[in-house]
Amino acid sequence: MTSIKSLRWLMRKKSGLSDGGKSSFKMKQLPFLAVLCTIMLFIVYRTTKYQYHQEEVYPSTSGKLKGLPRGIIHDNSDLELRPLWSRSNSRSKAVYSNSNLLAVPVGIKQKQNVDAMVQKFLRENFTIILFHYDGNVDGWWNLDWSSKAIHIVARNQTKWWFAKRFLHPDIVSIYDYIFLWDEDLGVEHFSPSRYVEIIKREGLEISQPALDPNSTEIHHKITIRARTKKFHRRVYERRGSTRCSDLSEGPPCTGFVEGMAPVFSRSAWYCTWHLIQNDLVHGWGVDMKLGYCAQGDRTKKVGVVDSEYVFHQGIQTLGGSGHRMTKKQGGVGIDVRTEIRRQSTWEFEIFKERWNEAIAADKNWVDPFKSDQRRIRKRRDTQRLPKNNI
Fold first, then answer.
1. Is the CB of residue 305 less than 8 Å from the CB of residue 197?
2. Secondary structure class of 344 (helix, strand, coil)
3. Of 51, 61, 282, 340, which is least packed with CB atoms within 10 Å of its CB?
């Protein structure tokens, strides 16, 4: 306000000059006014930025925190282990350099494969978190790195169940990338550091390593490794029920990764965590919508890395061998794998219904990819027109 008053005073003073000296005075004062306006704009910018920062750090919901002085509030965390004690001269020197996170649901039967995987990631300074779905943690303590990992136990729970409860965006906000992988991936041809280097350079917010073509289980052609490429964002398919061409602008032709080995940037995970449903634990259908969390054009921000690829073994875990049969109260035996499949299919339908209901209920939401669909239909119609009509 003081600066504005000063400016007004100068303007009034200027208007009181004689007509003969007015032009000369204007010329002399132009540099001063320019500097003054620049200073005022800078003050306004800094004030606005400070207010925005305050709102971001202390959101409106922080009314629940009004009993605390603002400077003491630490609103995020991480998964780094802290020592219970340390020498006094090293207490202030502790530096936690892990900038990426690997989270894997594990069972003791896949211990050897997980051991090979974790050793590669630990060498690249990853934080490791293991979700033990079989309840067996003691069987891992004889591995040298086990004490460096975070172990969370919940029997017969899925990867998405664990992720929803233990990978909250505020908890993993210090990590650049979150690797949410299955336990049955062979990493003989995979380097975590080279992988991160590629997705950073190419701006991939959501990605996955390509699958070795000889993998035991492959569901989508886009995930198969292209031997001559470093990475790819789309696939071409002219056979089968799914046709993929240059006109294809959505999953599974482009803007798609599968749920077995996704890698998320910090921003993409913030969105994905909110997309994961709390009660639909198998996560079916989520992969088809991940492109909405790509922080931009999914055809550019989502990709598959070919030069760093993995082997998918396709091993069934929950309800797998050794736990296939159980009994109901009536003594009737059931196949657990069959029941899990039915549950997954049912959850998939529920997820699709929720997506459509959410779109119908949110009148302000605009599908960022709808214009692409209209453009594709228009191009197809143009191509179908006879040449003499064009």
1. no
2. helix
3. 61
The pLDDT tens digits for 122-161 are 999 999 999 999 999 999 999 999 999 999 999 999 999 9
Over residues 363-371, the mean pLDDT reads 87
The pLDDT assigned to 192 comes to: 97
Statement: residue 323 has pLDDT above 80: no
pLDDT band at residue 17 using 50, 70 and 90 as cut-offs = very low
Q: Are 233 and 302 in contact (CB under 8 A)?
A: yes
What's the CA gap between 46 and 132, in Å, rounded?
Answer: 49
Torsion of CA 301, 305, 306, 309, to 10 degrees: -160
Cβ–Cβ under 8 Å, residues 102 and 131:
no
From residue 30, alpha-carbon distances to 4, 10, 49 in Å are 17, 12, 28
Give the span between the Cα atoms of 390 and 375, in whole angstroms.
18
Q: 235-263: b or e for each residue (b if 16 or more CB lie within 10 Å)?
A: bebeeeeeebeeebbbbbbbbbbbbbbbb
Give the model's confidence band at 389: pLDDT under 50 very low, under 70 low, under 90 confident, else very high. Answer: very low
Cα–Cα nearest to 120, from 39, 51, 207, 186: 186
Ordered structural domains, the chain, with CATH = 100-312 (3.90.550.10)
**How far apart (Å, rounded) are the C-alpha atoms in residues 358 and 301?**
24
* β-strand pairing of 206-211 with 302-312: parallel
Mean pLDDT of 230-257: 88
Q: Return the DSSP state at 153.
A: E
Average pLDDT across the chain, whole number? 83
Rounded Cα gap, residues 100 and 300, in angstroms: 22
Tokens describing residue 313: 């073994």
The upper half-sphere exposure of residue 241, i.e. CA atoms within 13 Å in the direction of its Cβ, equals 2
Beta bridge partners of 180: 103
User: Which residues, including other chains, have CB under 8 Å from residue 53's CB and lie 6 or more apart?
Assistant: none
Nearest CA among 228, 240, 280 for reference residue 259: 280
DSSP codes, 7-24: HHHHHHHHHTS-HHHHHH
Q: Between residues 172 and 75, which one has the greater pLDDT? A: 172
